[in-house]
Backbone:
């Protein structure tokens, strides 16, 4: 028996290392998506049209696969549809906020997700409000207050970009709740329906708002296809592989690398800065996210 088991240990360790590397690479790719988003925004693509032509493109390609796999998710149609709706709306808000706003501010406000996740877990799953979770919520709220200007926020309330960033975090937390409810649907389905939902919702909003599209040159279309088909698809594949082969708590901690990559790159490439109080707010928000991850691992 020992001779049979020995080769399996290195194989498991190798898979674990590959999964860690995959999640770090996924976090890097997701954290740097603001660069192509800003690039396409400068070429005249608004948040809605950009979401439609990036996430929506992957969703369109995924539709045949989801149709073929329908027997695996039709029994849980309602929660899967909620994943598509909430996840799609979260990405529409997130892309719109990133195109218009400061990367640091948008990313940090998005990472208030633990607040909404704790509240949603309490309401829908009856999860206990432990001292650790209450501390995390308090830290996140205090961090957001400082990031948005502290007492000065009362004189100049947050703008629409701040609202979009906050909404994206709320909707992402709602997506996580729906994902937990769809406990019998496979991971690939729960991942891909988000792209379908984002594409469908953004397309409907583009048509409803009658938003005008910039001239779509062959160069621009090629860049969009490459971004969606290579960059975003790779980030999605790496994420799915990582979360499939690692414990949930460890995977969640590694995924916070997305925020680290976004913050460092925005300061280095875009020259964005935080002042003293904002640094404290940012630290509180990141700390709250890590506290929530630790709280999940204790359950």
Residues:
């Amino acid at each position: 028996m020992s001779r049979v088991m020995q080769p399996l240990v290195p194989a498991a360790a190798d898979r674990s290392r590959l999964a860690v590397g995959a999640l770090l690479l996924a976090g890097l790719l997701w954290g740097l998506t603001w660069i192509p988003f800003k690039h396409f925004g400068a070429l005249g693509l608004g948040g809605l049209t950009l979401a439609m032509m990036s996430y929506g493109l992957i969703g369109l390609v995924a539709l045949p696969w989801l149709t073929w796999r329908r027997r695996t998710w039709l029994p849980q149609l309602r929660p899967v549809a909620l994943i598509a709706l909430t996840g799609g709306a979260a990405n529409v808000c997130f892309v719109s906020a990133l195109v218009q706003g400061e990367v640091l501010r948008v990313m940090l406000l998005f990472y208030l997700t633990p607040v909404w996740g704790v509240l949603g877990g309490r309401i829908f799953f009856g999860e206990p409000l432990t001292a650790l979770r209450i501390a995390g919520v308090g830290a996140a709220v205090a961090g957001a207050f400082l990031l948005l200007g502290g007492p000065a926020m009362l004189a100049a309330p947050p703008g629409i970009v701040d609202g979009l960033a906050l909404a994206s975090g709320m909707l992402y937390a709602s997506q996580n709740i729906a994902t937990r409810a769809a406990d019998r649907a496979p991971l690939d389905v729960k991942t891909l329906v988000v792209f379908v939902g984002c594409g469908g919702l953004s397309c409907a909003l583009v048509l409803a708002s009658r938003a005008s599209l910039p001239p779509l040159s062959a160069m621009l279309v090629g860049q969009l296809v490459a971004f969606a088909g290579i960059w975003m698809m790779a980030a999605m594949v790496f994420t799915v592989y990582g979360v499939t082969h690692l414990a949930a708590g460890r995977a969640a901690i590694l995924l916070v690398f997305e925020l680290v990559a976004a913050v460092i790159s925005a300061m280095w490439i875009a020259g964005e800065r935080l002042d003293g109080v904002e640094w404290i707010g940012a630290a509180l928000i990141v700390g709250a996210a890590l506290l929530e991850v630790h709280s999940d691992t204790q359950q």
In short: The mean pLDDT is 84. The radius of gyration is 20 Å. Residues 47-297 form one domain. The chain is about 80% helix and 0% strand.
